[in-house]
Amino acid sequence: MSREVGKPQSGYTQLLDGSYLATARAVNINCHHKHCYHIAKALRGMNASEALLYLDDVINKKRAIPYTRRSRKGRGGNTMAGHRKGKLGPGKYPNKASKEFSKLISSAMDNARQRYDTIEPDDMIITHVAAHRGQVATNWRPRAQGRATPSNHYQVN
Q: FRET pair for 17, CA 20 to 30 Å: which of 39, 77, 86, 144?
């Protein structure tokens, strides 16, 4: 198993078995884990080539990523996402995280092409994708009159 009791998580979150299975992993990405969570939820079960086209549309602000969790007013301030056209509901255009996910999917597609010669890009399906909050580096930014404000640097595993 990838998770052992009493030890921190490392490696993949699931051990998947299959005849044609290619994996890719990105560690310590500098973007918000909330955006990565919603992108992962939107891409799960998609075709890999369709997912790349979808992420390109998100980067160009043609299609939005649906935000289903933490999209209303509540603890942590106003994190509302506005409703988009059609039946999408609340959604946003996370540009930075979309670029990182497109790199990750391209890497998985390249790994599949190197491992299996007969596989086509249209046959590749995203079976498992997950985003977990990584290490948060906290610093202090000095301000006027001897004050300081905290600044956080988020990472995603």
A: 39
Is the confidence at residue 8, as pLDDT, over 60? no
CATH number for the domain that contains residue 2: 3.90.470.10
Q: How much of the chain is in helix, strand and coil states, percent to nearest 5?
A: 30, 15, 50
Cβ atoms within 10 A of the Cβ of 57, count?
14
DSSP state of 87: T
Q: How far apart, in whole angstroms, are the C-alpha atoms of residue 74 and residue 27?
A: 30
Residue 83 lies in a domain: yes
| Cα(128)–Cα(40) distance, integer angstroms | 9
Check if the beta carbon of residue 1 is closer than 8 Å to that of residue 9: no
Asked whether the beta carbons of 68 and 35 are under 8 A apart, the reply is: no
pLDDT at 1: 41
> Using the 8-state DSSP alphabet, how is residue 97 labeled?
H
Range scoring the smallest mean pLDDT among 52-66, 77-91, 113-127, 128-142: 77-91
Q: Which two tokens stand for residue 58?
A: 């998100």
Number of domains in the chain: 1
State if pTM tops 0.70. Answer: yes
